[in-house]
Amino acid sequence: MKILGIETSCDETAAAVVEDGSRILSSVVASQVAVHHPYGGVVPELASRKHIEAIVAVVEEALEKAGLRTDQMDAVAATRGPGLVGALLVGFNFAKAFAYARAIPWTGVDHLEAHIYSVFFGDEVPGLPYAALLVSGGHTSIYHVKNHCEMTRLGETLDDAAGEAFDKVAKMLGLGYPGGNVISELAERGRPGKIQFPRAYMDKAAFAFSFSGLKTAVNRFIQTHPENYHELIPDIAAEFQAAVIEVLVYKLMRAAEKTGCRDIALVGGVAANRKLREELAKAAKDAGLTLFTPSIDLCGDNAAMIAGLGYHLLKDGDKSPEDLSADVYSRAARG
Amino acid sequence: MTTQSIRIHTASSDETRRLGTMVGRALAEPASIGLTGDLGCGKTVFVQGLARGLAVPDRYAVTSPTYTLINEYPGRLPFFHVDLYRITGADELTDIGMDDLAAGRGVIVIEWAERLPPELLSFDMAASIDMTGDFTRTFRFFFYRRPSGNLIRDLKNNFNADEE
User: Fold this and answer.
1) What is the pLDDT of residues A213-246, one digit of tens each?
2) Among all residues of chain A, which has the CA nearest to that of B94?
3) Which of A49, A164, A331 comes nearest B97 by C-beta?
4) Using one digit for the tens of pLDDT, what is the confidence trace for B112-138?
5) Which residues in chain B are contacts of A212 at CB distance < 8 A?
6) Domains along chain B?
7) Do B134 and A220 touch (CB under 8 A)?
8) DSSP A302-313
9) Cα–Cα distance measured from residue A76 to residue B133, given in angstroms and rounded to the nearest whole number
10) Of all helices (H) and strands (E), which one includes residue A94?
11) CATH number of A2-116+298-334
């Protein structure tokens, strides 16, 4: 079954063709189209409603790369939420129209659950159930995945996402924005613990996160050390990164323990952070668990994950295919 | 009316959240509120309180909209939490759908409001936040339209306030 996946929840316009939920035939993200597509035009970094200008070109490119025609698609899957409503509507309505015109099934996919699914494109995949940590610029949450159609969110951030904290701390330190990667590079040269920032474990038995206090602690340190904070930047970066990673690792390990999962997954844009991967791999090994991470190109927002999870929702889900009155959502509520 | 302003000092993030809740409870009709202040000064904490005051259900975590740009919540009035931190120009405001929001469909709170171009800088209420210590904050509220009920009196009675 070949599925066309579409993702427009935030900045990226993305389309992909995936076969049977596991084989990626093509995966296109808008920024690549700007370079390769002769009439795609320049797709700005902050796409939002610019998705309208990009979507047709992106879908065409995904089909072309897969070597397939529109009439060879068996179904369509599009991101339904959470995200920016104006942006979501572009991809969601495109998917509806595409499916309606060709009389093929379609489904809406939760953006966060699709990230969780992104570990299923590797050669080695986790066994069900597994516990997963999603960390990105916009989200930080922990899931218990019973099967692809039944994921329970155990907890989420109550304020800032971890990736956002990285970017904002980079900005405070004068390293530009977004500068999360710069923080990670500088942290290699610094010593964690030389300066001390708080670890926000919240309730140690539960799975909520909070990174806004840490961000504020860094800002206060800068304000109160105007003379010498510049020379301490690598140490600030190292301690900040350690404070984020320790909590993330602790909560995922705790989730695996509580749910009795032997396999764990790390997904989302921040899953590309080398230190986080290392620390999590170490903790997993010590606990006798196996860690799964997607390839780097599947860490960020993409449409392959949407098509991949969409396949399972259409095959096994109870609520698909959906009718045309279905709508997008900005925020997902708990429970 | 002439613009009224009031200064409020909070001593903890819990108190900042309570301040937000009191402001949220006083909102009886669609309104736009601008927020300004440095990274980590407590804008999101204030908005979390405000959302509860608007009866946004607890099962929604009110989180930073920096990446998502506009977070929408159901409440007594529809609630739109906007963050302009990543916005670099007026055309991007149109792209994210700001003109739709300006139609007065609910309560709109805009973080980094100073990034709006002057012709769009029109609020019913604005607050600037200063970090005065590790946990202490000073809010300066400006009311461009008379708030409903007795919000100003309630703020004076329940918080460490000085009128200007």
Assistant:
1) 999 999 999 999 999 999 999 999 999 999 999 9
2) A49
3) A49
4) 988 887 777 789 999 999 999 888 999
5) 40, 44-45, 64
6) 10-114 (3.40.50.300)
7) yes
8) -SHHHHHHHHHH
9) 53
10) helix A85-102
11) 3.30.420.40
